Amino acid sequence: MEPLLKLLRENASYSSTQLAQLLGMEESEVKNRIQALEDDRTILGYMALINDEKIQVDRVRAVIEVKLTPEREGGFNHLASRIARHREVTACYLMSGSYDLLAFVEGESLKDVASFVSEKLSTLQEVVSTSTHFMLKPYKEHGMLLASDESNQRLRVAP
After folding, report:
1. In contact, 68 and 128? CB cutoff 8 Å
2. Cα separation of 123 and 138, whole Å?
3. What does pTM read for this prediction?
4. pLDDT digits 0-9 by tens, 61-92
5. Which domains does the chain show, CATH number per domain?
6. Distance linking the first and last C-alpha atoms of the chain
């Protein structure tokens, strides 16, 4: 992976000045490279990873496994794209195994997520079956541990 992208993936809040120093480049060079990466949609956006428990945001999150009948011309691509466009879907992946797609879904309540599955997802003709798993508590997201206690320390290596 390109060093600039690696640094931005680790910490998207680096300024162009900081990135230039870390990479040994001119700041204008960094700015031009970032603009090119944004223009070709390599960089799609920038996000802060927020611990929702600290700000007391109550959301219901679920992981939904979806089994599909692939389309003759487009396989799973058209269906996955159609499912991913729903506002409730925060991420969607083609996967191997018993199910074809893995969708991460958010709603204000259990009823919102259940309604999405029963009214929008399961009603698609190509959807053979779904399996919904509600997330109860996050411990790690995007490589970051969410707890701030001693358990954040590295695991000891046993002999």
Report:
1. yes
2. 30
3. 0.80
4. 999 999 999 888 878 999 999 999 999 999 99
5. 3-39 (no CATH), 60-137 (3.30.70.920)
6. 34
